[in-house]
Every structure is written in structure tokens, then in C-alpha cells.
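I am hoping you can look over what I have pasted underneath with an eye to the fold:
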Amino acid sequence: MPPFTIFNAVLVLPDRELPGGAARFEGGSLTHVGPPAELAPGEAALDAGGLYLAPGLIDLQLNGAFGFDFTADPAAIWTVAAKMPRYGVTAFLPAIITAPRASIPAALAALGAGPLPGAALGARPLGLHLEGPFLNPGRRGAHPPRHLRLPDPAAARDWTPARGVRLVTLAPELPGARPLIEGLVASGVVVAAGHSAATFAEAQDGLAAGVTYGTHLFNAMAPLDHREPGVAGALLADTHAVVGLIADGVHVHPAMVNLAWRAKGPRQFSLVTDAVAGLGLGDGRYRLGERDVTVAAGTARLAGGTLAGSVLSLDQALRNLRAITGCSVPEALAAAAEVPARVLGLSGRYGRLAPGAAADLVLLTPGLEVVATWVGGRLVYQSERFARNGLARHIL
């Protein structure tokens, strides 16, 4: 692709905002980030009009959207990927929940097959997030109990990033968890503690074995208690672990969001959606693996009332985090871009505005509404309002 420059933007850098900045990209990668650079004769450019230009958002836990569930229909990963840029999402981990054993090979095959020829460009699936089956039955949440299993290193022998597995959520207190954690980490897989009834000591043992992430902090975990902090307390107290949190106002009380933010800070806090098939469609009945989920008034639940993921979009999570914590725009964006990329060991390529990084970008209003999204330097989304007002005509 020829060079393209976005100028007159407020660049969102990890530690500050840079007003009046410019970003140039070519061949899918950023080549300049900083003060305005002189345009080459005939070079295509966009006047951002003082809007925020930030790295594209990365969701580490997406079960599905737009009526599709990845566990039930893993081929839909690519259909959903094409639509996620409307939320500023340029990369994500499709989450496969506890299901029959054949579900994981099927998801890996769908991921490896790639999109159908001629399919619309969209967000990048960076690999699977396997949320289960090695979860504590007492903290299973919406996961079907009949498919839960004890940790089995042999069953996970082929789970590697090269084969499509990036992150595995498990309960570190289960028998056999430690050798499984150690084996996954040695293979380059990120291991998260979640759906767990671990005591503080058991969680610390998991962290020592290689757990570096906490899946949807506070949810499907033993309550945080002043005498037995449990897995939530261990994750909050650990100086290296990153926590994921669903900031939809339903899963976690705003006061606890604030508590987690103050404990972990912008370097160890990751926004996730845990969104299900109802994202983008509103109220109705949807699938989550083998189970029916009812979305009503912005909340997804099983028939018995158990929360079953969310219908939160990642850009809305950004706005919620700002409103709850009062954090800065760069801090909020880090929680949805730089930190998730670093969790996956991909911060050299994703989650930041820097020369050499992928040209995965999102243009945002001061209120953090998505205006336009680029993936690999290609414009894959622009809002109707801004298209109607001539954003396309500003491309010189």
C-alpha cells in the first residue's frame, strides 16, 4: 500500500497525549509517529480535525457477537471479525468455553482456515482463549458442568501459539494444575486464573507456577475476604499479574472497579468484554456453547439468573472506565490496547503507536466514540455520521 498520513490528531501515547501529531503508515506498518512530517508530493493524507488517534483496541475475551457464538460455530470467528472494527477493535481472542472435547480442535481448524475468499477485512483473531474445561465446578458460572475436567497436561500437549492457542483460563487449585501451567507456559501460552475457588495460598502457588493473568476479576471467584483474600486478593496483591475486568456496571460494582484500578494501576489492568452473541443485536435469546442465554436490559443471563457473559462493547468499556475511575485518556486506552498486547507478548507489534508497529488504529472523539478504524493500514470502518459529514472527502 502507498504511504498514508493522518495529521492534526491528538496522538494517544502510553504516557501522554500529543496534540497536533501525525502518524504515517505504509505497507501495513507505522513509519512515523510524532510531530507533523512534510507530505510527499501526491501523498494521501487525512486531516483528523483534532480527534484522538490511538492504537486499535484488543479484546482478550470475546465469546461471539452479532448472533454468532464461537464455541457453537467457530467458523463465525471471521464473520464477527469483519464487524468488530465498529467498536474500535482491531484484534481479539475468540473465547471457546467448556464444551465437548471436539470443540477445541474444531475451533483451531476454523481459525487456521482463515476467512473465505472475498470476505470483508476486519479485526485480527490473534489466537484462541480457551476458557475451560479445567475449571472449578463450584465456580463454573455459565459453563456446563458435564464437560468440566481435571487438568490434564496430555490433553493440552498441542496447545501452542503456533497452533492457535494464546491463552488458557484454569482453576489453579485443581489437582494436576501445576504441571499443566508449567507445560503451557513453557510452550508460550499465557495462563490465567479464573472460575476458581482457590485460597490465597493456592492462588499464590499458581502464580509461582506461571499464571500471569486473572480472567474477569471478581466474577466466578471466591469473594474477596479480609481473612481469606482468595484468588482475587492474590491477583490484586501480586506485583506482576495483570487482571482482566468487565466494566459494564453489572459484573462488578463501580467501587470494586475503582479498588482494582487503584491496586493495579494502568500497567496491570486490562479491560475485557466477555461479550456473547447478543453483542450488536440487543435483547433476545442467543447461544453460549450448548446453552441458551437471554439478553434483557443490557444483561446476559442463563434461565436461572446466572450471568452469562455480557453485551458490552470495548469502546463502551473505555467510556465506563473513564467515568468510574477518572483516569486519563491514555490510561484508559492502555487498558484496552497496550496492556492486552503486552499480556500476549505482542507489544512489539500491537497496542501502541510507534514506528514498526502494525498500522492498527482507531480515530476517536473527545468522548471516546469511534469515528474510524484501520487494520494493517486499511480503512475498515467509518461511522455513518462522519462519512455523511465528509470524512472520506478529507482524504486528500
Summary: Confidence is low (pLDDT under 50) at residues 392-396. Residues 5 and 45 are 5 Å apart (CA to CA). The first helix runs from residue 77 to 83. The chain is about 20% helix and 30% strand.
